[in-house]
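U., I forgot to send this yesterday:
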Amino acid sequence: MKKRILLPILAVGIFFTTTSYKSDFFEIAKQIEIFTTLFKELNMNYVDETNPAELMDTAITAMLEDLDPYTKFWNEQEVEQARIQNSGDYTGIGASIETREHKITIIEPYKGYPADKAGLNAGDEIIKIGDIDVSDFQDDAGELLKGAPGTSVEITFKRQGKVQKTTLKREAVELHAVPFYKLMNKNIGYIVLSKFNRKASSEVAKALQELKAEGATKIVLDLRGNPGGLLSEAVNVTNIFVPKGETIVTTKSVIDKYNKAYQTQRDAIDTQIPLAVLINGRSASASEIVSGSLQDLDRAVIIGARSFGKGLVQRPKKLTYGTQLKVTISRYYTPSGRCIQALDYWHRDEKGNATRTREEDYNEFTTKNGRKVYDGGGILPDIQLETSAYSGITNALLEQNAIFDFATKYYYNHEIKKLEEFNFTDADYNNFKDFLKKTDFNYQTKTEKELKNALEIAKDEGFKEVIQKEYKDLLASIEKAKEEDLEEKKPEIERLLIDEILKRYFYEEGLYTYYLTHNPEILKARDILNNSNEYQQILK
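Result:
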C-alpha cells in the first residue's frame, strides 16, 4: 500500500515546475534519502555478494509494476529500439524476430532484405551469432544482429531439428507504415496501415492520391493488428479525411500542461470520399484515435471487432547514462468524450488485477450526427464480424505460438507455388486440432481458475474429499467444452492460420492480395461502400 501512496506523490514532484508542490518536494527528497541509505547499507553489509545493478533493476521493476504496464524503465538498448520503431529505419538483417527461452526465432523475414536473401525462414531458431551462443548471452542477443551497413555476420540456426549456417551482409532497412495498397473492383482503394511511425500520414496520403488517380472513388483503411505509435501521426492520418480545425483527440491528466485538445492542422486531401475502417482486438492506441474520431465525426463506417482499449498516453523522459523513463502522463478521449482505456489499473480487484468496466455501466455519448456510441474501453465497430474477434482460446493460441508453430509445420509439408493454388481445407483444420493434442498447448479458462481456487478454499475448510468427485466431473465437462470451443471459434482461428501460412509463401504482399478476394471484413466493407444508401443510413 505504501507504494501506491508514494508514487502519485513522486509523479507530482517530477513536474513541480507546473504544479503546486508545497511539502511534496520535501517528501520526495525524504524518501529518496531513505532509499539511498538503505541501498548503500544493503550492498555493504549483506551476508553474500550482491549485484547492485540487478538489485536496482528489481527495485525499479517492482515500483513501476504497481502502476500500469506502459510505464517502463528503458535501458540504452530499449531507447534505441524505440527510436527505430518511431523512425522506421535501422541497419540489420531485415527480419522481425522474437526471443523465446534464450533462443531467437525468426518471425518474418522482410522480402528482399538480407535475412530473406540468405534463405532464412519464419520459424528458424538462431542459436549462434558469430562466435557467441545466444543461450549464454545475458543481454538482448538480437542487438548482435545490428551493425554498420555492409558488415557481415555469420549465423548458426536450427531448422526442423537440423543445424545450419549462413552469412548475412547487413543493410539499411526501411519499415513502411503502409506495407500494401491496391485498387480493387476498379473503384475501391484498399490501404493497409500497420504502424504509426513518422512516415504514417505521408505514406497514407501518397497511397490515397495514387489510388484516386487510378480511379478509386471509395476507400478501405485497414487498421487491424496496428498497435499504435505516435499521437501526432494519428491526428495527421485523420486529417487526410477530415477538415482543418476539427478536434480529433483530447488528453486529460492531473498535470495541467498535459491537458490538451489536438486539432487537425492542414487542409484535408478528401473530406467526401466514402470511407470504411477495419479494426480488431489488436488495433490499439493511435489506431483507436483514428477509428474513434472518424466514428464520432460520422466520417467513416467502422467494421470488425472492438479494439484493444489502450487509452493511456506515454512520454519518454531522459534519465542519466542514456536511459529513459516512459511514463504515462494522460488518458485519451475521442471527440464525443469517450475514454478509450479499457482496464483500470488504479482500482484493482482483491487479486490485484486491473478492473474492466461492466457493460451495464457503459456511458452513452453521441456522434456529430447524433448517433449513440458508448465507452467501456476501445472502439466498438458500427458493424461487428465474428471473424474479427479474439476469444479466450484464440488469444491463448496466439500467446503460446500454436498458430505460428503450426504454420511452420504446414510450410515444410506443403508446396504451394501460386497464390491461386492455396486452399485451407477442413482437413487442414482437423490437422491443426491434432497438432494441438501432440504439443504442450494448455488453455486454462477463467472457470477452471475459479474452480481451482474454490477447491483450495474447500481444502482449507476440510471439504476437499466431499467435493473431489464433483470437481473432477466439472473439469471433464470443461475439457469437453474446450474441444467444442475449437470448432465453435473456427472462423476466427482459421483466419489467423491462413494469415500466418500465406506470409510463409508469398510475404505480406501475397497475404493482402489474397485478402482482396477472400477476407470477410474487406468483402463486407466493399459491399457497404458499393451500397450508398446503406452507407449513409449507418452514418445517419
